[in-house]
Amino acid sequence: MKTINIIIACMVMLSACCQAPENAQTAENETIGTIMTRRSIRKYKPEPVSREILQEIIKCGIFAPSGENKQSWEVRIVDNPVLMEEIKDAIAAGHPDMPADAAKGCFRGAPVVAFIARDLSYPFSAFDCGLMAQNMMLAAKSLGVGSICLGRPVLFLTDNEVCKPVIEKFGFSEGYEFCLCVGFGYADETPQVKPRNMEKVKFMD
Ligand SMILES: Cc1cc2nc3c(=O)[nH]c(=O)nc-3n(C[C@H](O)[C@H](O)[C@H](O)COP(=O)(O)O)c2cc1C
Fold first, then answer.
1. What CATH class does 51-185 carry?
2. Strand (E) positions, the chain?
């Protein structure tokens, strides 16, 4: 019995150190703490995020590294609930075969959404956009704002003709293609950490 208890205790300790990112190092280092405790948020409080805070988040986004410092992105921030609703309505109208709630839910209820486009002429622009998105999400986390990276709205807004005017309204420059969304807002949930596979990374000795 004693042996079984020791084995169980060891398993619990092992699983805790593999899964819980909130370890001693996290507690000591604010940046690591922010990275390790960020989660994709899929339930938001209705209250808006102030423009002042959004400006701070955007500034952190554009201070991300980019190939040749080309900053090969363009971003449109939608924080107007009326416009957000119009975009969701267009997605629902563009997908008549889907339940309207599912189509509209592709933004996961985020009250603010950044619509990001990439410069098609630059081969690394998708990376630039991804790095900028991550900078914004980490900045948001550090300011108490939840976030989520969203690919599905890109598919939903580009796979039909009904949603074309939405993209046109964003007025991205010629040669830019809408490629990613990031939702922001105050979290109304505390999601569990998702498992990560450390085996994907190997040191070459
Ligand atoms: C490129 C990209 C696209 C994503 N698209 C969606 C999406 O459309 N809907 C969604 O709910 N989550 C989306 N996610 C969030 C991922 O599901 C999430 O990051 C992953 O499950 C890990 O969870 P975590 O962010 O809480 O660590 C996306 C993430 C990335 C990086």
1. alpha beta
2. 73-78, 112-119, 146-150, 176-185
